Amino acid sequence: MRRPAAAIGLEHARRRVRDQGREPVSLQRPDRCPPAPAPKTTVRGACGIKDVNLSPYNGLIACGNLPIFKDGKGCGSCFQIRCTNHSACSKKPVGVVITDMNYELLSPYRFDLSGKSFGAMAKSGKEQELRSAGMIDLQFRRVRCQYAPGTKIVFHVEKGSHANYLAVLVKFVAHEGTIVQMEIREKNSKQWKPMQHSWGAIWRVDRVEPLVGPFSFRLTTESGRRRIAHKVIPAGWTADTTYKSDVQF
User: Fold this and answer.
1) Quick check: 41 pLDDT over 70?
2) d(C-alpha 12, C-alpha 202), whole Å
3) What domains are defined for the chain?
4) Do 130 and 121 form a contact (C-beta atoms < 8 A)?
5) Residue of 185, 116, 108 lying closest to 140 (CA atoms)
6) Which end of the chain is less congested by CB atoms within 10 angstroms, N or C?
7) Helix or strand or coil: residue 70?
8) What pLDDT, on a 0 to 100 scale, did the predictor assign at position 7?
C-alpha cells in the first residue's frame, strides 16, 4: 500500500488494556488517518502478504505504525475502527487487518487505511466524500480476528527456499491474529526446533544439513495458545507454493 502524506495524531482520550491475547486489547484513542489507494494483488508490503484485495481480507486492510506493526509481529492483527467527527462518518465500527507498516513518527498510534477501509466508515453514498477529507480522527480497538467458517491457517513457502533454507509466510491466523513463536519438526523427528522471525509474517530456518520433509509446524500466540499443523508441507515441496493446513485457533 502506498504511504500517503503524514498526519498528526492527537493525545489519547482513554486507554484500557486487558491481558493481551487472552482478551481483546481495548484501545479507544483519537488518531488521524489518511486514505490510501486500493491495494494491488501483486504488491507485498512490510508483512510480505499479497492478494489483500481478495478473500478473506477483501481489501479491508491497514498499515500500522511501530506500536501496531511491532517489527512484523503485529502482522495479521485485527482492529475495529470508526470515525465520528465528520459529517460523512457512519459512526459504525469497521474491521481491518494489519498487512503493512507506515513509517511516520507523528503520533503514538497511526493507521494508513486502504481506500476501501476508509470508505467503509462512511454513510451509504458518502464514501468518496469521506475519502476526500484526507485525514480524519478515528477511534480504534484491537479485537479477535474472525474469518469465515472453514478458513484455515495457510503456509506459503517463499521464493528462494531450498534444502538448506526454508522461509515460510503464515497467514489467516484467527483469534489473536499473530504468532510470536514458530517451531518446525522434520520427518521422523520428535524434536521441535525453533525458527527465526525473518521479517513481516515470515519465519525461517537455515542450516548446513539438508532439511527433510514433510514438515510440521507448532505456532504459539501472544497468550501462549498453541496449534500444531502436522505434516502441512510435504516431502516434495516446492518454493513459491501455498499449503493449506487443517488447523485454526
Assistant:
1) no
2) 32
3) 14-143 (2.40.40.10), 154-244 (2.60.40.760)
4) yes
5) 108
6) C
7) helix
8) 27
